[in-house]
Design goal:
The chain is an alpha/beta fold. The chain has 23 helices and 19 strands. The strands form four sheets. A six-stranded parallel beta sheet has the order 3-2-4-5-7-6, with helices on both faces. It is globular and about 75 Å long. The mean pLDDT is about 95. Bound molecules: adenosine-5'-diphosphate. Adenosine-5'-diphosphate binds next to α11 and β12.
Length: about 575
């Protein structure tokens, strides 16, 4: 009867699980152990899918990407001390990419702080540089409030990483179930999730000015990034681009918001588009290194920037001609509405469009000529062309493409075609290597209707290769294609004069075991492995694994001297 239910005692683990469910959390990533194993089990019993990893670093990358793909906070659960430290990799990645994530970590008993308790660490201090919000439940009664605050904070305003600390003693405290329920209710009542997230602060006057700038531009350009993808602004972008005829340029993860094959896509004429545009509307993308800081020589010194960003701080930092603060989707709705009052369109014969499409055609035909060759032993282009065609053949829903590595990612970005929003996950703002397997797992659970295809270098793969077991354990539809050139950047690239010193017999710092049998790794767990070195072998492995939609690793032998050191960023190494 209700009398007994309300008297039933529950502990911190159960209350934590209940709080997640009450917030609407459906997935968690992590590694269990002291003191969070019971919490994970209770969460599963309460209906949450817990994806158990080998290492918190990969689990953290998964949580960050899950946040990006779903717009809901990605949850990483870690044990105290070292587990939390490993998890900081994921938290920092969420922070730098502005993706919503909460790292929930167990921590040592509060009564033993400072005495060298098991896995003791001041985790709040450790997480501080990577968190937009830090919370600690010091008593069981604080659990619901701490959870709702951390989860809200991850998604409100500019999304980011948040940290929540759950001490061992708090997880073991108990309260009555009825008190727990009322605490959850009060936490939910003050939750801001429905209010601030999509707040539009942009004034109508600014929207008018933005439209005027675009209307009067001679060479306008629309640039969009993963912030626009996160905002799910694809329909508004399509309408804006197609009603005005303004060419567009996606950043790497903005690719797919409008299909790469769109006639107004300027990607193949990127240098011309950014070098010559006079007004650039930049939506959900920072003018950081990826966009050459918006400065000469890549951009014209007179270009007028209109920035759309949910973060006021970002706009203040860049000092554009005009900043529109707000959610990209909402702001673009206003922009489209304003344009509809007095429409304008560049028209097919506009000299700016002609210049861009001519340049794009020239560049594409030059690249296609290279791609058309079957080079064996494989360079990067030949297998990439075969993979591109196999991915396109899958059709819709398009696979999620995960990409990392220096040359593999650079070449893949240019060759692989993105046709649907949020189908590209790569090394991102930090150029983080080692994200591949975590991202694959996140994509497979967040987008179960899609195949997931990773195209990564052997070095990127190696960071978290053990997670192929996780793929097999959950039977995720993930095909990992490893471009195996035997090392970071490839073979030993040192000049003979550099190979000196007492350890000169050691392999080069860039080298791995040549011919490593990465495909055998997944077979150890019952997955499918392929070793390929020719176009026919690759085509057959792709066709079989894409149809099977089961965990597979395709180990592609690449000429160790085919790639460049540091890919396209040699000047920085
Ligand atoms: P990219 O790497 O694709 O160039 P960035 O990560 O540099 O993109 O920039 C993404 C930007 O998008 C960030 O400045 C972030 O504040 C912003 N952003 C995040 N969510 C939204 C949103 N809903 N609407 C508009 N901007 C957003």
């Amino acid at each position: 009867n209700s009398q007994t239910t309300s008297q039933t005692l529950i502990d911190g683990n159960t209350l934590a699980a209940k709080s997640l469910v009450a917030y609407g959390i459906t997935h968690m990533f992590g590694v269990v152990g002291i003191p969070v194993t019971s919490f994970a089990n209770r969460a599963v019993a309460a209906g949450i899918r817990f994806i158990a990893f080998h290492n918190e670093q990969s689990a953290g990358y998964a949580a960050s990407a899950y946040g990006y793909l779903t717009g809901r906070p990605g949850i990483l659960l870690t044990v105290s001390g070292p587990g939390c430290v490993h998890g900081l990799a994921g938290l920092s990645n969420a922070m730098i990419n502005t993706w919503p994530m909460v790292l929930i970590s167990g921590s040592c008993d509060q009564n033993d702080i400072g005495r060298g308790d098991f896995q003791e660490l001041n985790q709040i201090e450790a997480a501080k540089p990577f968190s937009k919000h830090l919370g600690k439940a010091k008593d069981i009664k604080e659990i619901p409030k701490c959870f709702f605050e951390a989860l809200d904070s991850a998604v409100l305003g500019r999304p980011g990483g948040c940290y929540l600390d759950l001490p061992t003693d708090v997880l073991h405290q108990t309260i009555s179930e009825s008190e727990a329920d009322s605490l959850i209710k009060s936490a939910a009542d003050v939750s801001e999730i429905e209010k601030g997230a999509k707040k539009i602060t942009t004034a109508s006057l600014e929207v008018e000015r933005a439209v005027d700038l675009l209307r009067n531009a001679e060479r306008p350009l629309i640039v969009f990034g993963k912030g626009a993808a996160y905002a799910r602004a694809e329909n508004e972008l399509k309408r804006l681009v197609e009603s005005t005829g303004i060419p567009f340029l996606p950043t790497p993860m903005g690719k797919g918001l409008l299909p790469d094959t769109h006639e107004l896509a300027a990607s193949a004429a990127r240098s011309l588009a950014i070098g010559k545009c006079d007004v650039a509307l930049v939506v959900g993308a920072r003018l950081n290194w990826l966009l050459h800081f918006g400065e000469p020589p890549k951009w014209s010194k007179d270009v007028k920037f209109i920035l759309v960003d949910v973060s006021e701080e970002e706009i203040e930092l860049r000092k554009p001609n005009l900043g529109l603060v707000g959610d990209a989707k909402k702001v673009l709705e206003l922009v489209n509405k304003e344009i509809k009052e007095d429409p304008f369109c560049l028209g097919k014969n506009h000299p700016w469009l002609e210049a861009i499409s001519k340049k794009a055609r020239d560049n594409v035909s030059r690249m296609e000529a290279q791609l058309a060759k079957d080079v064996v032993p494989f360079n990067f282009l030949t297998p990439m062309r075969i993979i591109r065609n196999a991915i396109l053949e899958v059709g819709s829903p398009a696979p999620v493409l995960v990409s990392e590595g220096a040359n593999t990612m650079d070449v893949g970005r240019a060759v692989l075609v993105q046709t649907e929003p949020r189908t590209r996950l790569d090394a991102g703002t930090w150029g983080t290597m080692g994200v591949g397997l975590g991202y694959c797992i996140a994509a497979a659970v967040a987008e179960p209707h899609r195949l997931v295809v990773a195209v990564e270098g052997d070095s990127g793969f190696g960071f978290s290769a053990m997670e192929v077991e996780t793929l097999v354990r959950y039977q995720l539809p993930v095909v990992v294609i490893v471009f195996n050139n035997g090392g970071v950047y490839g073979g030993d690239r040192r000049n003979p004069e550099e190979i000196i010193g007492p350890f000169k017999e050691d392999p080069a710092p860039t080298s791995f075991v040549p011919g490593a049998a990465y495909h055998v790794l997944i077979e150890a767990f019952g997955g499918k492995g392929y070793l390929v070195g020719t176009p026919d072998e690759l085509k057959s492995a792709l066709s079989e694994s894409f149809t099977a939609r089961k965990p597979a690793v395709i180990n592609v032998t690449i000429d160790p001297y085919a790639g460049a050191e540091s890919g396209r960023m040699q000047h920085k190494n």
